[in-house]
Amino acid sequence: ILTELYPARRRCNRGFVEGTPTNLMTRAVPRLVAHLVPRVDVLRFVAVLREPVARDVSAYDHQRRRHYAWVKACPASAFPTYDAYAACELDILKNSTVDADDRGDRRAGLWAGLYAPQLEAWTAATNRRQIFVLAFDVLLRRSDAAMTALLAFLDVPDRRPRLAHRNIGSSSSSSAASPPPLPRLSCRTRDRLDAIFIPANDWLYAMLARDQAQGRAPGEEL
């Protein structure tokens, strides 16, 4: 049913790849996938997780540049600083719970960076060995190893050209424009966000370590 929604040129005989960021954070999706897909056991899922505060700062910057409003109650264009934007998001999260209805603004705000309960919902509906968890910074710093592991997990032949190692951060053109810096956040805002995300990250790290130790995670996972 899902693949029929896409044009034929985006489908192939070997498999089908679909990527929607909100799939991870929307709690109803794992149950729907398990219910609608006849052979859910043959599916493979990839979760690329970025450090939550960096993710939210980047999201704020992206929304302002693109004139988007992912959090309708906190449109980024209405807040000239990330501090003000984060304060709005914190108010929304304060009045939410993990088990609350995830429709609306909550799923697009700070909730997006609370990865442990999101992964638990997917594991409950599928199988942890079907879910490849990859840290965003590992994907950037160890891109070759990350892609090798990811392709092996997906059972996709590695046909990448063997290129000489290049420093991603360098540029051969002196005229290349450097990207503008991301918005800065105050120590107070960082402390408020850390109060949420440090315990949440500890929960995530403990869960991933347990999965690795018990052999529940994919063997290819870094």
Helix count from the secondary structure assignment: 8
Kindly report the spatial arrangement of strands forming the biggest sheet: 1-2
Largest sheet: 2 strands, parallel
What string gives the helices and strands in order? Answer: HHEHHHEHHH
In the predicted model, the low-confidence regions spanning at least 5 consecutive residues are: 98-107, 165-178
Tell me the total number of β-strands. 2
How far the N terminus sits from the C terminus, by CA atoms, comes to 33 Å
Helix content: 40-55%
**Overall pLDDT:** 82
The structure class reads: mainly alpha
What would you note in describing this structure?
The protein is mainly α and 222 residues long. The chain has helices at 22-25, 28-36, 52-66, 82-94, 115-125, 136-141, 143-154, 187-213; strands at residues 45-49, 131-135. A two-stranded parallel sheet has the order 1-2. Residues 98-107 and 165-178 have low confidence and may be disordered.
